[in-house]
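Shall we go through a protein fold together, starting from nothing but its sequence? Please make up or recall a protein chain and show it to me in full. Go ahead whenever you are ready, and we will take it from there.
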Amino acid sequence: MSEDVRLPGPTDRLVIVGRTGSGKTQAAVWHLSHAEFDWMPWVVIDYKNDDLINQISRADLIDYEIVPEEPGVYILKVLPGEEDKLSDWFQRAWEQEDIGLYIDEGYLIDSRDKWFNACLTQGRSKHIPMIVLSQRPVWLSRFVFSEASFIQVFDLTHSKDMEKVREYIRDDEGQLDHQLADFHSFYYDVGRRRLDLFGPVPDAAEILQVIDSRLEEIQEREQIHRRAF
């Protein structure tokens, strides 16, 4: 990865796609470790009870009644059949604004869901940055790609999935035709129309340590604030 590659900012949408085991989840949590959760809440929508997500020791578990307002990392675990509850939660997040959303396996969300798509299409103006993961790009809402600021592509199994990705990436030099080494990815900056090769992110332990350290600083700051008042 070149030193001048841009990472997502506080109003950007990032989509990460790749087959199971390709490295997309670890990359997504690495991006989360760089997110602005020290001044706004970031909520992980966790469909698969992911092991790496569960290791964020200072993250707070929430339910559908809560749309957090305070900085930090929060986890909302979602089960099949809870689509209406999740859609209502997206509506309240959209109304609140200033909240980051990490969507694990975004293809499990109904592509027609009004409020999920509203978060995607109006995320910049409402300060709702998003990280959306999927192993099957063809099943994602079209707004996941059309509204993306950055697209990260790990190894994909199905040719239809790669065809879908190619619709949104300008690749004049045919880089997407090259085979990726393990845990490498292609990283596309939509605004710059720039495609880079992205190397493996740090190991899980290092990523988790960064998140834990930043969350500890938030908790210490809150304790000092409470003592002051």
